[in-house]
Amino acid sequence: MKIVQAPEVYEKKSTEIACFMAGGCGNTEWQDRFKNELNKYILNSLVIYNPYNPSIESNFKQIEWEFNYLNKYINDQFIFSCYFDKYTDQPISMYELGRASVLGKPQSVEVVKRGPLTTTTSVNINYGFPMVVSVHPEAPKKQDIVCQCGLAHVTVMERTPEEHAQEVIKWYKDIRHQMI
Predict the structure, then answer these.
(1) In this structure, what is the dihedral angle of CA atoms 163, 168, 172, 173, given to the nearest 10 degrees?
(2) Is the distance from CB of 104 to CB of 45 less than 8 angstroms?
C-alpha cells in the first residue's frame, strides 16, 4: 500500500488501484485508525490519495490537489472513500461526496432471481466505481449526509473507521480480482 499526501504528485500504475480518502481533518484520529486497519493486510496494489497534510501552507493548494486527484482516476480502478467524523462539519468532504456522486454515468440494471418464484428487481449501480461512505453516529451534519446520499442513490452506513477500512478492503479485493 502506498499513501500519497497532498501536495505530493504520484501517477498510479495501470496495475494499481486508486482510493481517494475524503474525510475530516479537524481531528485525524479516524485517519490513524483507518490506516492502521488497512496496514493489517497486504494491499500491494492500493494507492491511497490522502488530501490531509498538516504541513501544507495554503488551503488553496490542498483543495486544488483534492479536486485534481478526485477527478483523475474516476474511470480507472478507483474507490471513493469518505468518512464523516464527529468533530467538524467537513464542508470540503460534503463537496467531494457530491462531486463523486455525479461524476460518472448512473446506470440501472435488472436482476432476475430464478427459482420457485422468479422475480425481477431494478438495481442502481453506483456510477461504475465503489463509493464507501461512512458516518459517525454523532457527525454534526449526519442528516444532511444521509439525505444527500439517499438522493444520489449512494449507501451511507454508520461505521467505525476500522469498519470503513474493511469495506474499502472488500472493494479493493473485488477490483483486484477483476484485474487478474
Answers:
(1) 20
(2) no
Beta strands 107-113 and 119-125: pairing type? antiparallel
Rounded to the nearest 10°, the torsion over CA 145, 28, 7, 10 is: -80
The number of beta carbons lying within 10 Å of the beta carbon of residue 65 is 20
- pLDDT for 142: 94
CA pair distance 157, 23, nearest whole angstrom: 14
For residue 179, which phi and psi values (nearest 5 degrees)? Answer: -75, -25
The domains located in the chain, with CATH, are 2-179 (3.40.50.450)
Q: Model pTM?
A: 0.85
Other beta carbons less than 10 A from residue 136's beta carbon? 19
Determine the Cα–Cα distance for residues 10 and 1; give it in Å rounded to an integer: 13
Q: Give the side-chain half-sphere CA count within 13 A for 117.
A: 2
* pLDDT recorded at residue 126: 47
Over residues 95-124, the pLDDT tens digits come to: 899 888 877 545 544 555 565 665 655 554
DSSP state of 41: S
